[in-house]
Amino acid sequence: MKVGPAVGVVAGSGLLAALLVPAVGKQQIISTLPQVLDPDAGNVSHGLINYYSGAGNPTTLPENPLDQLISNPTHFFPLKVGLSAWIPVKDRLYVSTGVDYSWYGSTFTYSLSGEQKQHVHYLGIPVRLDWVFASGKRMDAYVGGGLESEFCLAASLGGREISKDRIKLSMLGTGGIQLNLTRRLGVYVEPQVLWLVPTDAEDGLLATYRSAHPLMFSLATGLRIKVGHR
Fold it and tell me: Quick count: other Cβ atoms within 10 Å of Cβ 122?
C-alpha cells in the first residue's frame, strides 16, 4: 500500500494552492487537485479519502484536507464457495473447471473518518487437471493443479462503492475429498494453495488479504457435477 507518494502529491498541491490563490482564486485551484481525493469521483485511494472532510462548500479549501491511514489494515481470511464440473480425460483423470465466488473483507482506520470496512467480491474461473487416487461409491479423494483467473465483481469502502480491482491470475494446487450424493453430483471440500502471478502493473490493485499474501492457503467448498462416464 503506497500511501507516501499520494500524500506528497497532496502536500505539493497544497503549496501550489497557497502560491496561486491570490492570482487565480480558490475555485480554479481546487480543479488542479488530484481527482482521486474527490469522494464523489468514486475512485478512492486507501491513503486519502473524504478530501472535503465535511466541508459544505467545495469552493473553499478545508483546514485539514488529509484523511490518512493511521494503522496497518486488518485483512480477514477469505470465504470461497463454488460450482465445479469434472470432465473425464481417462480413468481417474479429470479436467476440473467451473466458477468460484470469493469474499475479501478488510478494516482500515483513518485519521478523520475513523474505521472503515472494505468488502471486495470476486468471481474466479479455475482450470485444473485432477487425479482421483482413491475412489468409492460414497467418496473420492484427489489432487490437482492448474490456473485460476479472478474477476472483481464489486468493491466498497465505508459503504461507498470504489473502483474495482484488476484481474488476477494465480497458479493453483489442491487436494480434496468429495462426498458423492448421487452418481453425478457431489459435495467437495478442498484446501488450496494459490500463488498470485506478479505483474508490472500496480494501478487498480486493491489492498486485500490476497495482495498481502501472494502465496496463500484457502479452503473451498461447493457442489460438483460429474460429466460423462468414468
Answer: 24
**List of domains in the chain:** 1-68 (no CATH), 74-226 (2.40.160)
The average pLDDT across 48-61 equals 39
Residue 59 to residue 95: CA distance in whole angstroms? 59
Residue 175 CB contacts under 8 Å (≥ 6 apart), including other chains: 141, 142, 143, 144, 190, 191
- More confidently predicted of 221 and 22: 221
Whether the full predicted model's pTM is greater than 0.85, yes or no, is: no
Q: How confident is the model at residue 230 (pLDDT cuts 50, 70, 90)?
A: low
The strand pairing partners of 196, in sequence order, are: 170
Average pLDDT score over the chain: 76
Residue matched to cell numbers 489494515: 73
Q: Tell me if 148 sits within 8 A of 84, measured CB to CB.
A: no
Q: What pLDDT was estimated at residue 4? A: 39
**Inter-CA distances, 49 with 143, 204, 209, 213, 220, Å:** 45, 16, 21, 25, 34
Q: Give the DSSP H/E element, type plus range, for residue 94.
A: strand 93-110
- How far is the C-alpha of 174 from the C-alpha of 163, rounded, in Å? 31
- In 3D space, the residue among 118, 132, 128, 130 whose CA is nearest the CA of residue 165 turns out to be 118
Residue 76: the pLDDT is 93
